[in-house]
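tool_call predict_complex ligand=zinc ion
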Amino acid sequence: MTQPRFARFAIALPLYRVFEYSLDSEDPAPVGTRYRLPFTSGTRTGVLLGASDASDFDPARIRQVVERIDEQAVLDGHMLELSRWMADYYLQPPGEVVFQCLPGYLRGARPHHSTRVKCWKLKLPDPGAIEGLRLRSPRQYEICIALQRHRRGLTALQLRQINPKWHPVVRALEARDMLFWEWVEGGIGHLPAVDLPELSAGQSALLAEMEPRLGSFAVHLIDGITGSGKTEIYLRLIRDRFAAGQQVIYLVPEIGLTNQLIERVRLRFGDCFAISHSGLTELQRYRAWDRFRRGEVGIMLGTRSSLFSQCDNLGLIIIDEEHDHSYRQEDGIRYHARDVAIKRAQMLDIPIVLGSATPSLESINNCARETYHRYRLDHRPTRFAPPRLELVDIRNSQVEFGCGTRVFARIERHLACAGQVLVYLNRRGYAPVVMCHECGWQALCRHCDMRLTLHQSAHSLLCHHCGFSQVVPESCPECCNGEVRHYGIGTEQLEQGLVQRYPDTPVLRIDRDVAGSRAALGERLRQLESGEPCILIGTQMIAKGHDYPAITLSVILDADQALFSSSYRASERLAQTLFQVSGRAGRGDRAGEAVVQTRFPEHPLMQALLRKSYRDIAQELLQERRSFGFPPYARVVMFRADAIELKEALEKLDEIRELLAVTRRFEELTCVGPMPALMTRRIGRYRAQLCLISQDYQVLRSVLSQSMPAIEQLASTSRTSWAIDVDAYDL
Ligand SMILES: [Zn+2]
Ligand SMILES: [Zn+2]
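tool_result ok
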C-alpha cells in the first residue's frame, strides 16, 4: 500500500498562502512541477513547492491531486527561491509570484514538451580521413573540423552559422559515413568565438577596469553619454561569457525600435539568441524561453519579464537604459525588474551590468554609497559630442500646429543640408482636448477621470487609459447648439501639418498607433536607415535606444507640462527624456543640434538643462530629494484600494490603517492617507491610497511584519480590492 505524502502548491490566487494536497508516493516529482488540483468545484493548476510525510492539517480533509502535468520541473530551484524572495520583499501573494516567473503559455495546464533537436556528430575521429578532405572538398572539411571541436555535436542552427548551405554538405558527409545524427535533449553548447570590431580607447579602458571584477557578484553601472558605445561593451562582455560556456540575459526597455539592436546582435552572434517582448504571442515567448532554458541559444534578449528566463549556467545579466520606467511592473505583481535582477545576480554570485546615459537617481545614489561600481564613457567614438540643449522661447512667436517660427527655420536649415530631423511630442492622437465653445462641455471618458483624445484618422474620441472610444459628436451633446472644437496638438495633427508644409520631404510618424503595424513601422525604419532627408515624429518610443547617424536635429515640443507636474519624479524624468532625445542627433559625421521649445525659459529646471550636464542636474535633484525626504533617501510602501464607490475604497484603507497603527514603531514612520488617488476613477473603479514613508527601512519592515498577517486576512472582493506596492514608483 502506498503512503500518502503531503505536498504544498503555489496557485495563482491573490491570497497570502500556499495550498496543501496529498500525492501518491509512487510519484516522486521534483519541485517546480505543475499539477492539476481540485479547487472548489473545478480544477486549478498548481506548482509543486515541496512535499513531506506529515501535515499540520487533518489528513482526512486534504484532497488528492488530480494529475501531474509535467514530466520535468518547469521552474528550477533557483527560480523558486527567487520567487520566495520576491513574495517576501514585495509582500505579494506567493502563488501569484511563482506564476509570474513562468511564461504566460505555461500558466494554465498546457503541456510543456521538452523539444528534441537533431544533432550531428562526427562518426570516426580519423584525422587522416578528415585531412583528405582539405583539398578535395573544403566545405566538407570545414564542417568536419567544426564537429571535431564540438564533440557534443552541432544542431542545424549551429551548422548554418558555419555554412548557410550546410545541408547538402552534411548529406554528402553522411553518404561518406563520416557523420551521424541523433536526437538530443537539453543544452547543446555554444557557438564558436566571434570576432568583434576594435574598441575605442575609452571603451577598452572601461573593460580593462571592469574585467577583474567579473568573477563574482557585483553591480556595474556604465554611465556613458548618448552614443558613447555602451552596446559594443555589452556585446564584448557577452562574447567573453560565451567563451566560458555561459549564457546571458540582456534586458531592454519596452520600446518598438529594438529592430536595430536585434540586427546588431544577429550580425555578431548569428542566430544564437532568443527574443521575447510583449509584441510576440504567448507561444512565441514560450519557445524563446524554452530555447534559452535548453541552452540552444546563449542570449535572451527581451523586455522586463525576460528576466525570469532560466538556464543552467547564467553568467551575466545586462540591463540597458536602466533608468527606464518600463522595468517597473505596475499591474498585478508589482516589482522592479532592475532590483529583482540584482537580487538574482547576487543569489547566483554573477555580475550584473547596468547601462544608461541618464542613470536613475537610485543608481547614482548607490554608486555614491559604493554599492555599485561606476564607469564613465565621456566621449563618442564618432567625431561629434552630443549636442547641447538650446531653448526656443515661443511666448511671442506665431505658432502653427505646435511649432514656432524659429523651429520651422531650424528644421528647414537641416533639411537643406540633407539632415534628418527628429521631432519629439509625447502625445499621440490628433488633439488632447475636445470641448464645446458655447457651454464648456468637455469630452471625458465614461470610465476614467480623463479627457478623451481626438483621433481623426479613426474618426473617434479615445481614452488612452482604458481604451474606451466613441464617435466624434456633430454638435455639443450637452447644449445641442454649440460647435465641438478641439485644442492642443498630438502627433497625428503634427504629422498632417508637417506634410502640408514640406510636401517634398517624407514625414514619418512613430507612435503606438503606428507601431501596431509591423509593415508600416518597418517601412519607416528603412527610410531612416537610407539616410535621406526626412522628418521623424514620435512619442517616447523614439526617445531612446536607436542610432540613426543621419539625424542632425532633435526638436522637443511641449516639454512644459512636466515642469508643473505634481509627481516628485517629474524633473528627473524630464531631464532624462531631454538628454535622451537630444542625444539622438549628431551621431554620424555631422554635428547635431537639439532645441527645446518652451513658454517658460526662465524656469530653474529649463535653465539647468541649458547650462549643465545630466550628472550635475542629477546631483542637484538628489540634494532636493534628500531635503524633502523622498526616495532614494526614504522608502515608500503604498497600500492601494479600488472599489465601485470611492467611500468603499477609503474604508478598506481605513481598516488597513487601523491594523498598522497598533504596531510598535508605527509612530516612527510617516503615514499619509487614506486619500483619493491622483486619477481617482480609472476603468470604472474609484481608487484610493495610503502611503507609508520612512528614512529607515527597518521601521517599515517592522511595522509591516507585525501587521501583515492581519492585513492579509482582509479579502479582496469584486466590489473592493486592495494591493500593496513596495518601493512605489510615484506617490
Ligand atoms: Zn455645448
Ligand atoms: Zn477611460
